[in-house]
Batch of 2 targets.
Target 1
Amino acid sequence: MRRTRKIIPAALLALAVAACAPSTGAGAPPGTAAATPLPGPSVDADFDLDALVTAAKKEGSLLVYDSSGDIEEVAKAFTEKYGIAMEGVKSDTPQTAEKMTREHAADNVTIDAAMHEDGGVLVGQLIPQDVARTWVPADLKDQIPQENHSPLLALSKATVFAYNTKLSPGGCPVKNVWDLTEPEWAGKLVMQDPLGKPTVLSFFTQLDAHGNQALEQAYQAKYGKALETGEKSAAYEWIKRVAGNRPVLTGSDEDISGAVGAPGATDKKIGFMSISKFRNNEDKGYAQSTCAAMTPFAGFSYPKYVAVATKSRHPNAAKLYVHFIMTEEGVKHEIGEGGVSGNATVKPLVTPPGLDDWQARLFHTDPKGLLGDLQNRQTVSDFWRVNHG
């Protein structure tokens, strides 16, 4: 049975994170490296997979948290392979971070490992505070690009603009991201509330960090003139206009998928949703596809990292899980509807509808900007709140 968790408001988590996140050097601008270097990944010099399996079996069980319900399928496969009772719990990213922090402080750790979509909290809070740490399987180390080691990138997923293919048989009716700021699309963009979705907030901060030129060029292409704005950047101007155009906010991608692609849908809407929801095309008869030709991007990719709890009571089982998720046998349950493994030898399993070029059609998260995402989160949250309200 899938478990659901209450969303912790982003503002509340940000305050808690700010209290324990490492500070930058005096006068350092947002987004610079922490004063104390991030601890490097742990790699067992005498690694032996068979010995790890034996030790993990003696520990007997494993609990892993993830923001995706796919973790339940991963747990079944892990238990079947190793005979170790693994429980996979779907939990919203902010609550997982808070729970791991509280358990660590209380010396009462139940979560052995977790999949983290919120890289900012991972590198700004959990790892520096020794709540969690990165462990890289030595036998897979050379298959994982060096830039994916710290923190350990398990996979990348994507959130895309999607449309109903039956209502718009000629293709996505939105061609440019600035279209979504126009009156004709007022109230027709359906998306998760950014204040409860760290990946969307990180998209906003990353867009401001290295997406302004693309947004300016897209504006010029649509309107035939240069963007003029009183905001700090093109990204903030776009965020302001989207927020003010009355987007419909939900608490889940499943609700977005239903609003856009359900068989009974009669109103053209654009969904900003996870590619995992394209499974509804087959499972529920939905008609939805990526707005693949949108300028300058059709959505954004985001990293999902894996880390073990420092005080785990099942440390060997936690390591074995990390090893499992870094192989095709484990990660296939997470990327079955689309995604890219952090292990370069694992090839993508499927192509999400309309997204035939992952690299070129998505805006990509820069892992060097994760700390900046955390530092700037409250600013962009407040900016969204003011302009949506």
Target 2
Amino acid sequence: MAGNLTFDQLKKAVASGEIDTVLACAVDMQGRLVGKRFLAKYFVESAYDETHGCNYLLANDIDMEPVPGYKAASWSKGYGDFVMKPDLNTIRNVPWLEKTALLLCDLQDHHTHEDLPHSPRGILRKQVKRLQERGYLAYFASELEFYLFSETYDSARAKHWQNLDTASPYIGDYLIGITTKEEGVMRRLRNEMEAAGIPIENSKGEWGPGQEEINVRYAEVLEMADRHVILKNGAKEIAASEGKSISFMSKYNYGLAGNSSHIHNSLWSADGKTPLFFDKGAEWTLSKLGQQWAAGQLKYAKEFTWFLAPYINSYKRFQAGTFAPTKIMWSEDNRTAGFRLCGEGTKGIRMECRIGGADLNPYLAFAALIAAGLAGIDEKLELQKPFVGDAYQAASLPEIPKTLRDATETLASSKMLIEALGEDVVEHYVHTARWEQFEYDRRITDWELHRGFERY
């Protein structure tokens, strides 16, 4: 994996005073960066080998509350340490923070120093190993959408997240004039991510007022997941420094478009030079391998939907006529379908999964897509004909799970994912999903108060 600094370069930058802080970060179940800020000289002296963190960080909810019932960590086990093993290939400077470098850590068992099987980066690394054993390299790219607000996070909280001022007052999908007004944040985001070793191809206005899409250059799948989480974290930090705020919620407002994270994926030869999905003579110019891969993702889409939509709110995005998919079907170039074939007739041919929201954890989402694709290859599945027309109105097509509860129970019974990821891993994330549902079920919402306070 590639940052933009070697360890030797980091040591020189620390010695010269160019860098005085090192962020040693791991990724939690929610896809957030967690970790420690090191005085740089101590990091390069000793912590570069390993540091430690509390294992409750992979057994808590989005509010950082310890969740009962996990096998991996609990009060009865004392919430001990795990090892945070720095991946020295991921070191990069952080242009938006003064004299700061960042790197990612793998989470390992405190005693065996093996990857924790339920750690998001470890889950993806396992699927990468399965690809490597077959001589494959996976290139992925994720498109992230978000809303940019002319509010600070403090002012949004003070307003109870209602009637917020978006960076633009009306929809500016592809409009250059309106997005020029948003350049204070977006220009910094493009340029400073590039300087941090995260190449940004472009940004554009999306189908909501103040909504943005940012496209990161495709990369090997683990590197892409690393880029994704650093981008999300950095985008919020850059916006905050400009007196703005950003939300990656799947659906922050009922009346507005949701935030997606479309995932492009393809297989290449181990050296990354030969596209394995491109075949001029094949139907749709998609090779037999590519067709099997896509067929696997279609077959198992219901089973892995939770990895693409992990929260109650995630399922509010799946609404007809909003450019978010509601049906499990593929198309050649049709944004109403859950999967879309892109780059047909070129070496860049790939499948785009349109199901995921911007709230997904990329390590988990990418791992699930790989597992399903490999299952399609192993089972030699045949790819059905592409759908043509308005998938929203096609009652006969299989539907994406409509609720978190549906997706959770489908995940729990997935033999394919249990085999590919491990029974304990699936159980761990099913428990996570059920806790999210439990927390929601016992809460009183504004919608309930509005409807029932006086009327009941």
